[in-house]
Amino acid sequence: MRAYDIIKHKRDGKKLTQPEIASIVSGFVDGSLPDYQMAAFLMAVYFRGMDEEETYWLTDCMRTSGDLINLDGIEGFTVDKHSTGGVGDKTSLVLGPVLAALGLKVAKMSGRGLGHTGGTIDKLEAIKGFSCELNTRQFIDAVNSIGVVIVGQTGNLVPADKKIYALRDVTATVDSIPLIAASIMSKKLAVANKGLVLDVKVGSGAFMKNLEDARELARLMVKIGTQAGRKVTAVLSNMDEPLGEMIGNAVEVIEAVDTLRNHGPQSFTCLIKTLAAEALALGAGLKREEAEKKVTEVLADGRAYAKFLEMVKFQGGDVAMIEDYSKLPAARKTDTLKADRDGYISKIDCEEIGLAAMMLGAGRETKESVIDMGVGLKLVKHVGDKISKGDVLAELYLNPERDNSRAIERLREAIKLSDNKVVAQKLILDIVS
Ligand code: URA
């Protein structure tokens, strides 16, 4: 089977066979297929697309390209959540304990942040002593006894995606629905969770800029997951502004803990309740309303917060920092960003906000950069709010030893004002199951 012929088939709009797709993926992973042929293949897929069957085959070939994580030692319904990417996204810190408090099992593997996106592992490491490196025995024991654990990714999970994604990034082939679906689902299906809730972000700060494309991606991923024998639901949520109010590391831990204590921002709490109710519906067969009632209860009566404390303790973190936020890393200087005119907030550009936070020191510019855990920002105003000149738009938590001027300018540019009244979109746009 010649790579040339497979690329030509796709270029000419023909349906590929499973062996053809397997040969492209395995050749690329073992190095026998050069980058230029893979780049041509990806561009052919970008323009010609793939049908559901081809996308499933691509996903499965990628999934089996490296280690597979078996969760057989865990009793109960194991469930995972995946977000297609956002800024200020501290969902895993809250959702894991909420689901564990409801009897589900959350064996979460998360990543670090790079560029404009933050990472769950970095946020948790703002808590002194918190270790995201557990061995397999500790990992399984933690899930069985507490119900939730969050660790960094280990092993050689889906090497095909690492190589293909790096090439997509430099060949303008990232925003292809079948390629995104295969990339996400290959990683999710490499870990043997029984259930999966996908949080598909829609809007200026997301891969999917409009609802129609987001629905197509969600349907495709739900179909792939279901075909692989998993229970899958996708929630479509608005990403026209960052999630919640805090962006940074220690400040996002504070916002997550506030939410677990039932006084988090309303929009973030709403997303948590929706995702948790969907997971509970998958794991316990409850109707949505009934599931949401149970989620509301564990947030209100402290059970979700207690689970978070148990998880922090098990993973070596300093619980005193959670009980008293003043012990968490803090910025040495605070400032505010004020509106320079009247108007309505029309958009808060997530990518720009994420880059501004990174430039303040909250994120990594390169893999080697060291994060400043205490810096970040709080968005005080949101899309739709009426603003008068001089109003505080954001609180800034700064390291005075850095030159923060470019980051603050970027932040100002990211918050767009309009003269006309703006109606904020609702947060939950659809659910595909
Ligand atoms: N997230 C992924 O993991 N892969 C994509 O292609 C897009 C978003």
What does this structure look like?
- Helices cover 46% and strands 16% of the residues.
- It has 17 helices and 13 strands.
- It has helices at residues 3-11, 18-30, 35-48, 52-63, 91-101, 120-124, 136-145, 159-170, 177-189, 211-227, 250-260, 266-284, 288-300, 303-314, 319-323, 350-362, 405-414; strands at residues 79-83, 106-110, 148-152, 195-202, 231-238, 246-248, 333-338, 343-348, 376-379, 386-387, 392-398, 415-418, 428-432.
- α9 packs parallel to α10.
- The radius of gyration is 22 Å and the shape is globular.
Oligomer state of the chains in this structure: single chain
Report Rg: 22 Å
**Structural class per helix/strand content?**
alpha/beta
- pLDDT under 50 segments (min length 5)? none
Instruction: Spell out which ligands are present.
Output: uracil
Largest sheet: spatial strand order: 1-4-5-13
Tell me the total number of β-strands. Answer: 13
Roughly what fraction of the amino acids lie in strands? 15-25%
| Helicity level | 40-55%
Task: Provide keyphrases for this structure.
433 residues; alpha/beta; 4-stranded mixed sheet; 4-stranded antiparallel sheet; 13 strands; 16% strand; globular; binds uracil
Present the secondary structure layout.
Layout: H1 3-11, H2 18-30, H3 35-48, H4 52-63, E1 79-83, H5 91-101, E2 106-110, H6 120-124, H7 136-145, E3 148-152, H8 159-170, H9 177-189, E4 195-202, H10 211-227, E5 231-238, E6 246-248, H11 250-260, H12 266-284, H13 288-300, H14 303-314, H15 319-323, E7 333-338, E8 343-348, H16 350-362, E9 376-379, E10 386-387, E11 392-398, H17 405-414, E12 415-418, E13 428-432
Helix pairs in contact: 1-3, 2-4, 2-8, 4-9, 4-10, 5-11, 5-12, 5-14, 9-10, 12-13, 16-17
The protein binds uracil.
Uracil binds next to helix 9.
